[in-house]
Amino acid sequence: MIIDVNVNYGFWPFRKFHIDNLAKLKKKLKENKIDLAFISHLGGVLNYQEVEKYNNELFRKIKKNNFFYFVPVINLNLKNAEENIEKFKFIKIVPNYHLYSINDRKFLSIFKKISDLKIVVFLQMRYEDERNQNPLFKVKGMDIKEIKKFALNFPEIKIILLCSYFREAVELCKIDNIFSDISFIENYKTIKSLLNYITADKILFGSHTPFLYTESQIAKINFAEVKKEDIEKIKYKNIFSLINELENLIKKRR
Amino acid sequence: MEIIDFHAHTTTVNCEDLIEYYNKFGIRKVCLLGDVLKYGYNPDEEQIKEINNLTIQLTKKYSNFFIGFCHLNPRNTKKFIENEIERCILKEKLKGVKLEASIFASDKSVFFIADICQNLNIPLLQHAWNTFTLGRNPVPDCFQTDPEDVVILSKNFPKLKIIIAHLRGIDIRGIIEIKNYENIYVDTSGAQPVSGIIEYAVKKIGSERILFGSDVYFPNGRDIPVQLMAVMKSRIKIEDKESILFKNAERILKNDN
Questions:
Q1: Which of B169, B221, B229 faces A216 most closely, judged by CB atoms?
Q2: Residue B192: which of A186, A188, A223 has the nearest Cβ?
């Protein structure tokens, strides 16, 4: 089984996605033997005041689907964010696109609630390599010092980094409550080299489709040259551990 | 299909693990461009010699596998550059020249090297990126060549085979810039396996001008299957894939000195 924790739906400026609808996304992921995909709407990343509209749109489209798991994009700056999060087991935040700091004191209460409710936070480090961004659309990646401070302030919040670079993942995953997907992690024999620094318990499979070729991400695990049990953790066991209900939910849906 | 990786580096003389890994994916030949970042962006003459010595050593040790490129710094003296080309290309049979970020490709000092390469009929592989995003001179001594610089070089040396490195670095803007210059090729390396750019390049400049490159920097750098899959699984015809993965490289490397 492979669970993909990093799939995107929608439009992105200056990039033309061939995989531009849910049917094509599902087909591509299934071709790559991915059984389930956590998916978010890019519209809510770019239209920071209308996240709910895009969340609702995607939720409606996939609610009868047993392949996609809806990950709401939450803009903490919006008035109703705190009440909105109550209904979710996991959320995605994109601080550098929604223009705030995760350590801003005004978010103490909402993060306290996230911590109390044991909501898993997907933290988007970036969507594109900063060196490949269109010059008209440059957005910095997340600052790792800021993430360290946040993670230590809220040790009960489980944070899954999406699109972290190799060195960022190595440094941040030393902190107990931080995990990372593999989509932007690359090195000679990616997984084997990553496991020289962090344990397999900290790594999750994420493809960042359709930004990146799904097959390139699958190649990282198919040619990993590490123990089978480590690969299984990366493919699905770690996300099961992080989101307790997920395993049962999957059984029910099937 | 015997794939050729046109863009690879290694820092070590012991490459058994690397070669075994390449073999898993049907990659049978690899262009070694040297440990070009070992001494930063402006290596002196002794440092250049040391970098090239490793490449020469590797092409001898693994003679059926590695094809060596001579690394040069256009800011070194002309006399040294001439001697190093004579040593590496004519005597030691390296097959091309690699330029990094010592100076822009449009600089007159590069013309001196380009002229020799054109006369010897050997390819020149030039590092490049889109500096609108990266910055033209991001750190002291680092001169990031833009596709426009390579175009200037191409106009001055129309018979020189120039390979502009890093398709995903030069991106759409770079492809548009080089489109009309038939002597400019591009390798597929650079950054994450971003979807769509290979398809775009094939559409705009044709697969005959694109070469597979991984940018592995053994024992680090990019991961070979990750980079290879970006070509293998791109939405282009099988003939185009064959061109990119080995046919173009074979054609370019055929030149005997």
A1: B229
A2: A186
Closest Cβ–Cβ partner in B196, B229, B234 for A15: B196
**Predicted confidence (pLDDT) per residue in A127-161, tens digit:** 999 999 998 999 999 999 999 999 999 999 999 99
Q: Dihedral sign, CA of B184, B215, B87, B66?
A: negative
Query: Six-digit token pair at A123?
Result: 């933290």
Whether the link from the prior residue into B140 is cis, omega within 30° of 0, is no
Give the ipTM: 0.94
Candidates B134, B224, B233; nearest CB to A215: B233
CB contact under 8 A, A130 and B24: no
CA-nearest residue to B223 within chain A is A188
Distance CA B253, CA B247 (A): 10
Dist CA A95 CA A45 (whole Å): 9
At B139, list the tokens: 């750190």
The full set of domain ranges for chain A reads 3-253
Kindly determine whether residue B226 and residue A186, on different chains, have CB atoms separated by under 8 Å.
yes
Please tell me which residue of chain B has the smallest CA distance to A216: B226
Q: What is the pLDDT of residue A247?
A: 78
Residue B177 has pLDDT above 70, yes or no: yes
- The model's pLDDT over B75-133, given as tens digits with 9 standing for 90+, comes to 999 999 999 999 999 999 999 999 999 999 999 999 999 999 999 999 999 999 998 87
Tell the CATH topology of A3-253.
TIM Barrel (3.20.20)
Using CA atoms, how far apart are residues B71 and A182, in angstroms rounded to an integer? 33
pLDDT of amino acid B257: 39
- The two three-digit tokens of residue A138, written as one number: 């440059």
Q: Which residues of B fall within a CB distance of 8 Å from A183? A: 192
Q: Which residues of B touch A (CB under 8 A)?
A: 18, 21, 24, 129-130, 132-134, 168-169, 171, 191-196, 199, 216-230, 232-235
Mean pLDDT, residues A211-219: 98
